[in-house]
Design a protein that fits this description.
It is a single chain. This protein has about 120 residues and is an all-beta fold. It contains no helices and 11 strands. Strands 2, 4, 5, 6, 9, 10 and 11 form a 7-stranded mixed sheet that branches.
Length: about 120
């Protein structure tokens, strides 16, 4: 089993910045992908950014140039630096970890942290 604990959410004004962190613990394989998803009220959960074990990244078009995902493999922690925040970035942000073993893929989720962008 894998446990994910997010932190860093909160209330911020438009144009401001926040940094989310997600610490993973438990049975973590060497090769995995960690990412951030978000869910606005009344909408489906969507991918924000994902990063592989060697640092390859992928971002949603809506956050490119404003958000940066990074990871510290020694700490099993993934970060999301969010700059130039907009009201449409408001939502619950969830950390995920995906890893495979013997042909099966396992996906784990954190409990979520709320990000509210409002003046």
């Amino acid at each position: 089993q894998v446990q994910l604990v997010e932190s860093g959410g909160g209330l911020v004004q438009p144009g401001g910045s926040l940094r989310l962190s997600c610490a993973a613990s438990g049975s973590i394989f060497r090769f995995n992908a960690m990412g951030w998803y978000r869910q606005a009220s009344g909408k489906q959960r969507e991918l924000v950014a994902v990063i592989g074990s060697y640092g390859s990244t992928n971002y949603a078009d809506s956050v490119k140039g404003r958000f940066t995902i990074s990871r510290d493999n020694a700490k099993n922690t993934v970060y999301l630096q969010m700059n130039s925040l907009k009201s449409e970035d408001t939502g619950a942000y969830y950390c995920s970890l995906s890893q495979s073993n013997l042909g099966s893929t396992y996906e784990y989720w954190g409990q979520g942290t709320q990000v509210t962008v409002s003046s």
